[in-house]
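Shipment paperwork, digital attachment
Item: protein structure file
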Amino acid sequence: MTVQSIAVFMGAQFGNDPQYTVIAEKLGQIIAEKKLKLVYGGGRDGLMGATALSTMAHGGEVIGITPNNLAEDAISPEQVTRLIEVDNMSERKDLMMRYADAFVVLPGGFGTLEELAQVLSWAKIGLHDKPLVLLNINGFYDSLWAWLKETVTNGFVAEHELQHVQIFDNIDDTLAYMNQFNLLIHETNDY
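Attachment content:
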């Protein structure tokens, strides 16, 4: 499989650690430099907006997908390559999953958690075989990762099923992992 697009799930807020924004913007830049498409939830604010605007500022392509009931929070159609309005959140997630060849999860809230859970559970039941990475900025996903391991320890998830998600602390390790899937992402400098 060749990666041509990466869905990034992330918060519509900036969070309280400036590194979240720094890494979100750097990820957008790298997506553009690698000639990949960014697929995201279409928001204008927070990490969502920062990643999309950074991708566009560096000459990249951005597909935003937003439900009609959140259209007032959507990025302006002129600021991205394509903004798709859908009827509901389920359709949004479905399109994001179809349009993406790989998934990266930045810090976020309940919506980010929901998107992560769906991609992970769909991989478990064989609906896709695409790489999924938690980008663990300053330990944001440490507790979630510990919980995922507890699901194995307590017999709710088979150990081999954790292969459907990986966790890395930086963009370089994320890209190196994706390279194991013979994807068209090349090594980058340390970020």
